[in-house]
Specification:
The structure is a single chain. By secondary structure, the protein is α/β, with parallel strands linked by helices. The protein folds into two domains: 229 residues, Rossmann fold, CATH 3.40.50; 122 residues, Coagulation Factor XIII, Chain A, domain 1. 23% of the residues lie in helices and 36% in strands. The chain contains eight helices and 18 strands. The chain has a six-stranded mixed β-sheet, with helices on both faces. The longest helix has 16 residues. The protein is globular. Belongs to the ABC transporter superfamily. Keywords: ATP-binding, Nucleotide-binding, Transport. InterPro entries: AAA+_ATPase, ABC_transporter-like_ATP-bd, ABC_transpr_TagH-like, Bact_Polysacc_Export_ATP-bd, P-loop_NTPase, Wzt_C. One of its GO terms (molecular function) is ATP hydrolysis activity.
Length: 403
């Protein structure tokens, strides 16, 4: 197996100073007495990226992802270990890196392309294609200091991918830009991969890493805590995130006028036992325990479901109903029963809301305060034949028809 990038025992640290100099005089007088501590950004990092693969780097903020990518790009020099790169490389790292704010977009295309190793003739030959991909034809002669963050990324990505590198490094490229641009990026990344090029992606969007990457590493406090198949690494990261969320609730935001409150939300298992674990694809019930210090006519309740990283997946609300919940005066219990919760196994966060009959005034809103762990059902025959992507469990069967 050919290797594009080999990282062997790489470490990198920074100095964190206790005090900041207020003036040149203070710096001179202090001299060498300035106190600092070493912060280990990377600690003994080793891995290999196979040629022609898409490789992912994931982890929380401050875990060392961007520092590692900068070391691979040659922007930072590690204090220990070595990095070997086989082939030409282009990197799209920090927003605006490689651009001069006072120059026009046109001038910055040539500047950035030169930094990435292209000749002026090569840039001239690909200029129209670069600008067309960026979608900035109407702004290409304006100074880039007038560009939005999305325009910066459009132009930077367009230049990087048109240098035809053997290795492409991308740091949170899909975090900025509209949906159409993100789609174009994904299509371009797919095309580069099909051409046998190597791509390394840093992203907080772990679903993107699971979808695009063959292999990945998980960084935590500058160390590799998991590496291997991208799906397995992403699962390990999500599982760790799940475990870091308290099970006793009240870790999300809470707001509202307070005359009425949602005291608790209990998830009833299929056998009627209260738990925060339920079975994917099977019936599930939610019990709202509410209280009020005032009489509220026709109150409304709502339940929202979020992915573990906070993406809203959907919700259900109780319309004002005189027969189900005509009034809240003191204490009340209201049950919500769903025929099935068709989400793939994993951890999810729940929000609950108590509002007036017009759903305008909020008495109590508890955001992402309770976790539910969905586990697979015992009927796994069909699941084994389905590769599920995303949070929704679509179900179904594959069948080959012989012609």
């Amino acid at each position: 197996m050919s290797i594009s990038i080999r990282v062997d025992g790489v470490s990198k640290s920074y100095r964190k100073y206790d005090e900041r100099n207020q003036s040149l005089k203070a710096a001179v007088l202090r001299g060498r007495r300035a106190r600092y501590e070493e912060f280990a950004a990377l600690q003994d990092i080793s891995f290999e990226v196979p040629k022609g693969s898409i490789f992912g780097l994931i982890g929380d903020n401050g875990s060392g992802k961007s520092t590692l990518l900068k070391c691979i790009a040659g922007i930072l020099t590690p204090e220990a270990g070595r990095i070997a790169v086989d082939g030409s490389m282009a990197a799209l790292l920090e927003l605006g890196a490689g651009f001069h704010p006072e120059l026009s977009g046109r001038e910055n295309v040539f500047l950035n392309a030169a930094i990435l190793g292209m000749t002026k003739r090569q840039t001239e030959d690909r200029f129209d294609e670069i600008v067309a991909f960026s979608g900035l034809e109407d702004f290409i002669d304006a100074p880039v200091r007038t560009y939005s963050s999305g325009m910066y990324v459009r132009l930077g990505f367009a230049v990087a991918v048109h240098t035809d590198p053997d290795i492409l490094l991308l740091d949170e490229i899909l975090a900025v830009g509209d949906e159409d641009f993100q789609r174009k990026c994904m299509e371009k990344i797919s095309g580069i991969h099909s051409a046998g090029k190597t791509i390394v992606i840093v992203s907080h969007a772990v679903s993107t890493v699971a979808r695009l990457c063959e292999s990945a590493i998980l960084l935590e406090h500058g160390r590799i805590v998991r590496q291997g198949n991208a799906d397995e690494v992403v699962d390990a990261y999500l599982e760790e995130a799940h475990e870091s969320i308290p099970d006793d609730g009240d870790h999300g935001k809470r707001w509202g006028s307070g005359e009425a409150r949602i005291e608790s939300l209990v998830i009833n298992g299929h056998e009627g036992t209260s738990a925060t674990t339920a079975v994917s694809g099977e019936p599930i019930a939610f019990r709202f325990s509410c209280s009020s210090s005032v009489r509220i006519e026709l109150p409304t309740l709502g339940l929202g479901v979020f992915s573990i990283d906070g993406v809203y997946l959907g919700g259900v609300g109780l319309k004002p109903n005189g027969s189900i919940f005509p009034v809240l005066d003191g204490k009340a219990i209201v049950d919500l029963e769903l025929d099935r919760l068709d989400l793939v196994p994993g951890a999810y966060l729940l929000s609950a809301n108590l509002l007036d009959q017009h759903a305008v005034h909020t008495y109590d809103a508890r955001e992402k305060f309770l976790r539910v762990d969905l586990v697979p059902s015992d009927q796994t025959d069909n699941i084994d034949r389905l590769f599920e992507v995303g949070p929704l469990r679509l179900g179904g069967h594959w069948r080959a028809i012989n012609q």
